[in-house]
Amino acid sequence: MVVHLMFNPGYINRLKLSNRFVRSATAEFAANNTDGTIINEYLELYSNLAQGGIGLIIQGHLYVMDEGKAHDKMAGIANDNHITGLKEITQLVHNTQTGNAIAAQLNHGGLYSVSTKTASLQKDKEVKVMTEEDIENVIRGFQEASLRAKKAGYDAIQIHSAHGYLLSQFLSKKINHRNDGWGGSLENRAQLLLTIYQEIRSTLGSSFPILVKMNGSDDPFEGYSVEESSKVASWLAEKGLDALEISGMKSTRSIKTEEEGYFEATGRKIKQNIGDMPLILVGGHRSLVKIQQLRDDFADYISMSRPFIREPDLVKKFKEGKERADCISCNKCFKAPVIIQCMAKKSELGD
Ligand SMILES: Cc1cc2nc3c(=O)[nH]c(=O)nc-3n(C[C@H](O)[C@H](O)[C@H](O)COP(=O)(O)O)c2cc1C
Ligand code: SF4
User: Fold this and answer.
1) pLDDT tens digits, residue range 142-174?
2) What is the pLDDT of residues 301-344, one digit of tens each?
3) Which residue owns the Cα nearest ligand 2 atom 2?
4) Which domain holds residue 246?
5) Could you tell me the distance, in angstroms and rounded to a whole number, from the CA of residue 102 to the centre of ligand 2?
6) What's the CATH number where 339 sits?
7) Nearest to 225 by CA among 242, 248, 245
8) How far is the CA of 30 from the centre of ligand 1 (A)?
9) How many domains does the chain have?
């Protein structure tokens, strides 16, 4: 049997991953709403994912400070009380015999957070404009959260700079109208992301794997083009970022077979600008043939979210000959009770 490159190990910094499949961050919608601590059901969810043999599991986004919480039942990494529960998840993943690694995704919701703080005033939404002190607090918030992630035993961290949350709000010229050092030119709009990356790098050291998830463009909103994201990606690569996951707006699209891999074009363009830095591509991957083609063409790693909600053991099944994930991208899982799970009826799914 010829084993495809997707099933070969890879390295992100010094972290060895057993294959090229990544579980893209997927919010669990299940933390205690009062304090952001995790509940027992998280352990079952991550145990199932760990047993499935995915190379790198990226946990659902964690708010780095209370004001950055983006939605109800989001888990936090905003104070030391959060570390105990998160540590249980990392230990469980590491104790599973499938060679899994797990990353913490760090986020601040910006205008979609409880604080509604963002770069600038908005036409269609009441927001609070961030002061210089707010920005300094956010940088410190990410930096302190990264240290908690290391203490909790994560193998890597991912800075969330996609999907319209705070860091992507600063990148977008549609949202960021500041005329100080944090707005205006692309260099200035990218300054918050770059500063946070550098602060975390000096906190965690050169050998700790640091990833970023970023929109390849904010299409259809016209605030951040693929030319701009390619430039930002090249700056991150120059500064020693370990891997970049490319996503986009309207990230959970309803796909038909012919639209598999809906961020392929932006990912392909960005890959030309980042040298050897590994690129992780997400967005509607469902069939092994397409996944292998993307890996053969340009993507170092392929990530998925919804297919692993339905089938946490999908990598094993692919290895055993399954050709296509069952997930039909209906997004009913957003309405799951207790914790994220597939809500599609068996009769609606693929074979
Ligand atoms: C229920 C759900 C929760 C999600 N939560 C996050 C998240 O916490 N952080 C993130 O970066 N993306 C999140 N996403 C987006 C996914 O990571 C992924 O980018 C998107 O679903 C496209 O991949 P897919 O077609 O494989 O699902 C979420 C998606 C779903 C369906
Ligand atoms: S509910 Fe729909 S989108 Fe979610 S995992 Fe199930 S099939 Fe996929």
Assistant:
1) 999 999 999 999 999 999 999 999 999 999 999
2) 999 999 999 999 999 999 999 999 999 999 999 999 999 999 99
3) 330
4) 5-348
5) 23
6) 3.20.20.70
7) 248
8) 15
9) 1
Q: Is the CB of 309 under 6 A from ligand 2?
A: yes
Query: Can you tell me the distance from the alpha carbon of 106 to that of 59, in angstroms, rounded to the nearest whole number?
Result: 10
- 209/102 Cα distance (integer angstroms): 11
* Type and span of the H or E element at 135: helix 132-151
Encode pLDDT of 278-292 as tens digits.
999 999 999 999 999
Which residue in this structure is represented by tokens 């030309």?
A: 272
Instruction: Report pLDDT for 99.
Output: 74
Does residue 11 line the site of ligand 1, with CB under 6 A?
no
The answer to whether the predicted template modeling score (pTM) of the entire model surpasses 0.85 is yes
Q: What are phi and psi of 300, to 5 degrees?
A: -75, -35
d(CA 226, CA 3): 34
| Ligand 1 near 169 CB (within 6 A) | no
- 349 Cα nearest atom in ligand 2: 7
Q: How far is the CA of 222 from the centre of ligand 2 (A)?
A: 29
